[in-house]
Fold this protein.
Amino acid sequence: MSFLVELDRQAFPDNALDRLDPTPRSGLDQFSLDNARAMMWLSQLAYETAHRSKVENILSAWNLTLHAFVSNDPITGLPPDSACVVAAGGRGATIVSFSGTDPVKIRAWITDFRAAPSATGLHSGFQDAVETVWPTIKTVIANRPDSEQSLFFTGHSMGGALALIAAERAMRELNAKATAVYTFGGPRTGGSAFFDSYTPPLGNSTFRLVHGNDVVPTVPPALADGFRHVGRALQCPTDGRFDEQTTIMAPEENKPDFIESFFQNGLAELRSFTPAHLIDGVSQRLLDLPAGVLPGMVRDHVPKSYFRALSIPLR
């Protein structure tokens, strides 16, 4: 993975998960900004699977126990050799986190959305990636202790798609309904059959966070082989913030749309050349400068943009 998705060890604060609430909620009021922030940290941790000792050290600081760890070579396209996964337990919950794709290689795997859906209506690359690690995840979920019965799935980018597939499979095969699923910049995962299977039990407890004109949630396009989003989307503007007033869409809304996002990004790019923006750009922390050279729809996608949108400072 590149510098765009990995963080130094000191960037992970020991108190990152202190406000995690594992208590299951009912009804439509299930979104928790504190839980979204905690899941963003767990999504980031899945990007660090090239460094097992680093992951173990961070989990220990968070008072979590590592239950499963799967790594592979850096992902260069779809399908990956296998999903990269960190499964951990503690603080009243079991959490399964999937790594996404390095934005440096984003063009290669977005173009792979030409792939036809599998026989079950899922993107075949995503389905195959989960299949490689499912025995490991299944064992973790089936054997989680009573003190870790709340169950969360999370992931950024492609990791969000894998989290959705795993959550649906856990419910269907293990009767283990996720307490909540949080994804960040995740793509569409499957067609109508997956939507129908997922939505009644998990639709209202699944939250898709979308920052600005992030290109990845717009693909595959809504009309391509009937791909649909599942769960409830929350979208903030480019350089905006998620907060308690952010609109939470209904599961039936298949947003964002590629064409709309493309034109919105074009307007944003034009505004970026104003003198005020250039002055702001000079004052950015060195950590953020490399991402600044990326196209807007990709820049909105990088993990650092989601940390910023969640008002999480990075050291």
